[in-house]
């Protein structure tokens, strides 16, 4: 399968989930591959590997991206948030708590992507309407739940975070 | 991932040099949402990515006579910019529906143009807004109108060593309006079955200038001069709008594929021409 090109190992300096992180990657690695295989952050999932499903969603310098369509070499100097960065020690993030309470997952492979994508939504817009939440999350695919429970959990978490717990 | 090398350019000259040395299998990396997938799935022969996002001109939005948008500026920065949103609604309507949120965090107008898909969403919008690509290369700089940029599916006018630095949209005239729409069988996250953009300049009820462009109905996005000719110098009425829509249907030369049939695409082309003209007219009168 070789195309005759030899790629190099490169050192990449980043901040991941708030911690400075220097790691070694191959220049052909996608960010998804580097996060999972070089750093061990396996909460980042590979679904389609072509930017359609959102399972590999991470927040890169404050913006939601699909890590399968980012090269690891691009993130030198960047800040990255993965699902592993949501909980504070033993305390789940309100989104994680809401996903559990509202049964917003079944098989779970899409869940880290949804959580990260929803976090990016609430960082950007703490009071989303249902429509805004649905459009924001349109790039995250779930083949189990039918989405309603996920949307309800996101809106529930937004309420909790805004101090409006019913 | 197949073996692809990575190089980071820090200036326009640096990028040209890297692209020239890399030859035909070197590709510019901006948002990466098309080229990384193409490299992985071996749909293009790519052995070097030249990342242009550290080139200052590539990441800038400059307002002068109109707006110059760097080829590496992600879509969300474009649609979140109120000045762009006010002046170029057709562009914003297309930028809002290219992929989902995560794609819009990275994908660029420069990339959508250079990927040169017949179904590209932003290209017809840039065409009706008289967009011009600012190209840099080994022989200096040149400008190419967006409507002359694509030469076939996935092909364009760029030579080895050249890349698009930015896209300039001229200031829209007074009493002008633009609009863009696409048809897909779901609400979000799909490739156009057909799309269309319109731009109108009105003097009272008379059309003094018009541009209509279509996507996903020919080997390249298509500027339809015959549709504009059906309107220019005439009052904007149901009849002249119908004549423009008929000209669009006649110009469309689509294929049958899993997304739609020739018949459906030609029909949609007429419908989208009419709807975008009516919206553009409302905006021109506002």
Supply database-style keywords.
heterodimer, A: 166 residues, alpha+beta, DNA polymerase, domain 1, five-stranded mixed sheet, B: 286 residues, Uridine Diphospho-n-acetylenolpyruvylglucosamine Reductase, domain 2, Uridine Diphospho-n-acetylenolpyruvylglucosamine Reductase, domain 3, Enolase-like, domain 1, 3 domains, five-stranded antiparallel sheet, four-stranded antiparallel sheet, 34% helix, globular
Task: Explain how this protein is built.
- The complex is a heterodimer of chains A (166) and B (286).
- By secondary structure, chain A is of the alpha+beta class.
- Chain A contains 5 helices and 5 strands.
- Chain A has helices spanning 31-38, 94-101, 111-124, 130-136, 148-161; strands at residues 9-16, 19-26, 57-60, 63-66, 79-81.
- In chain A, strand 3 and strand 4 (63-66) form a beta hairpin.
- In chain A, helix 2 crosses helix 5 (148-161).
- Chain A starts with 8 loop residues before the first strand and ends in a 5-residue tail after the last helix.
- Chain B has a 5-stranded antiparallel sheet. In chain B, strands 11-12-13-14 form a 4-stranded antiparallel sheet. In chain B, strands 1-3-2 form a 3-stranded parallel sheet, covered by helices on one side.
- Chain B is globular, with a radius of gyration of 19 Å.
- Chain B has 11 helices and 14 strands.
- Chain B is an alpha+beta fold and 286 residues long.
- The model of chain B has no long low-confidence stretch (mean pLDDT 96).
- Chain B folds into 3 domains: 5-51, Uridine Diphospho-n-acetylenolpyruvylglucosamine Reductase, domain 2; 57-169, 2-Layer Sandwich (Uridine Diphospho-n-acetylenolpyruvylglucosamine Reductase, domain 3); 176-285, Enolase-like, domain 1.
- In chain B, helix 2 (35-40) links the parallel strand 2 (26-29) and strand 3.
- Helices cover 34% and strands 26% of the residues of chain B.
- The chains are: A alpha+beta (166), B alpha+beta (286).
- The interface between A and B is large, with 40 and 33 residues.
């Amino acid at each position: 399968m070789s195309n005759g090109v030899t790629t190099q190992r490169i050192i990449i300096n980043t901040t991941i989930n708030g911690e400075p992180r220097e790691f070694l990657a191959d220049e052909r690695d996608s960010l998804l591959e580097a996060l999972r295989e070089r750093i061990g952050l396996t909460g980042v999932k590979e679904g389609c590997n072509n930017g359609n499903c959102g399972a590999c969603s991470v927040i890169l310098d404050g913006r939601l991206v699909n890590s399968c369509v980012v090269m690891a070499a691009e993130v030198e100097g960047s800040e990255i948030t993965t699902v592993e960065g949501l909980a504070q020690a033993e305390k789940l993030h309100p989104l994680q708590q809401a996903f559990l309470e509202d049964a917003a997952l079944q098989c779970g492979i899409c869940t880290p992507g949804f959580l990260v994508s929803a976090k990016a939504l609430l960082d950007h817009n703490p009071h989303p309407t249902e429509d805004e939440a649905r459009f924001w999350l349109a790039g995250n695919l779930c083949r189990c739940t039918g989405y309603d429970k996920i949307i309800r959990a996101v809106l529930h978490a937004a309420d909790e975070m805004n101090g409006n717990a019913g | 991932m197949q073996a692809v090398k990575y190089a980071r350019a820090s200036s326009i000259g640096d990028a040209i040099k890297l692209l020239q040395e890399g030859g035909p299998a070197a590709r510019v990396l901006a948002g990466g949402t098309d080229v990384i997938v193409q490299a992985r799935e071996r749909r293009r022969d790519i052995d070097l990515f030249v990342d242009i996002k550290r080139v200052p001109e590539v990441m800038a939005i400059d307002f002068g006579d109109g707006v110059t948008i760097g080829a590496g500026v992600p879509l969300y920065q474009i649609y979140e910019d109120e000045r762009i949103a006010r002046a170029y609604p057709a562009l914003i309507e297309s930028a809002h529906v290219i992929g989902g949120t995560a794609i819009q965090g990275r994908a660029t107008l420069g990339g959508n143009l250079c990927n040169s898909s017949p179904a590209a969403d932003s290209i017809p919008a840039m065409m009706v807004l008289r967009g011009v690509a600012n190209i840099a290369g080994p022989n200096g700089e040149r400008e190419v109108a967006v409507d002359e940029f694509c030469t076939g599916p996935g092909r364009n006018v760029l030579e080895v060593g050249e890349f698009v630095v930015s896209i300039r949209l001229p200031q829209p005239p007074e009493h002008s309006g633009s609009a863009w729409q696409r048809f897909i069988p779901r609400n979000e996250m799909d490739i156009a079955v057909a799309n269309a953009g319109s731009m109108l300049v009105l003097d009272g009820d008379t059309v003094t200038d018009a541009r209509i462009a279509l996507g996903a109905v020919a080997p390249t996005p298509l500027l339809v001069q015959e549709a504009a000719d059906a309107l220019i110098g005439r009052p904007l009425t149901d009849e002249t709008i119908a004549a423009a829509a008929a000209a669009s249907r006649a110009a469309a030369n689509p294929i049958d594929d899993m997304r739609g049939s020739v018949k459906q695409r030609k029909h949609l082309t007429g419908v989208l021409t009419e709807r975008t003209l009516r919206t553009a007219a409302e905006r021109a009168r506002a």
